[in-house]
């Protein structure tokens, strides 16, 4: 018998499943990964979306406009406290939209995005409660001159 | 006797206290508002900061470089599930850095930032577990053409 995965391992798997569902454009799978309760989502540069309807509609739109997307996750950090978990990670994304001409892939664009994903323990496993992604605009090595607030 | 504030009211007060501490540049107060455990923080355009030391140092730097900052919070939404809470809000900020000449205020800059703040219930009240702020770059009214992923 293999040992029961720890909470941290389970949350990390739920986090990976989320990105894989987006990569595959698997809307049905993605829907099952979000809580049934009130959820919220911020895509990079977007305002806040709240509620399952608004959040899932945004993914349907993104999937319709994305021909190809791949996430290389780095710096994945998981913190579990009782029935909630916070995951932070860097999404190194490579994506392309539909091409102008049918059958061709649009130009691929690389982006550096950081995400905070909040999960909630349910009877059906860990479910997404909140996703917040944002573009990294500043250098990490020297933040002393950065005046960006809060 | 006034009624005991609900969880949602308590979380909203903790959220307001967080922004007021940054407005006042009150580092001591701000330190007491964060969990003692593993915390994470993303300032707009920044990479992820993890751990109390790294997070609090970033606020010390921001406070040192910010002469004036004011937050007008709108769209504050609170969700509480057991001992954890997610707050989303729009931070309409007005801020200014130190001026070139001593005694003068630097130019004021307005910014539209959205935040996801995660709180955790402790014996000393609700404490910040995660803060993620990001600039709003896109229009909210017509997202159909937006191809920004995940």
Automatic annotation (TrEMBL), chains A, B:
InterPro entries: NTF2-like_dom_sf, SnoaL-like. It comes from Streptomyces enissocaesilis. PANTHER family: NUCLEAR TRANSPORT FACTOR 2 (NTF2) FAMILY PROTEIN. Transmembrane segments: none annotated. Gene3D superfamilies: 3.10.450.50. Residues 11-136 form the SnoaL-like domain. This is Nuclear transport factor 2 family protein.
């Amino acid at each position: 018998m293999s040992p029961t995965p720890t909470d941290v391992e389970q949350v990390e798997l739920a986090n990976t499943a989320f990105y894989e569902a987006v990569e595959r454009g698997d809307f049905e799978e993605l829907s099952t990964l979000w809580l049934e309760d009130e959820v919220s989502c911020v895509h990079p540069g977007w305002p806040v979306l709240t509620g399952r309807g608004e959040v899932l509609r945004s993914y349907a739109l993104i999937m319709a406009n994305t021909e190809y997307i791949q996430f290389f996750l780095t710096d994945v950090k998981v913190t579990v406290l009782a029935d909630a978990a916070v995951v932070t990670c860097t999404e190194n994304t490579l994506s392309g939209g539909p091409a102008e001409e049918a059958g061709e892939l649009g130009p691929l664009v690389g982006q550096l995005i950081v995400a905070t994903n909040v999960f909630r323990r349910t009877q059906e496993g860990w479910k997404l409660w909140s996703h917040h992604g944002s573009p990294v605009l500043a250098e990490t090595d020297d933040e002393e001159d950065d005046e960006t607030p809060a």
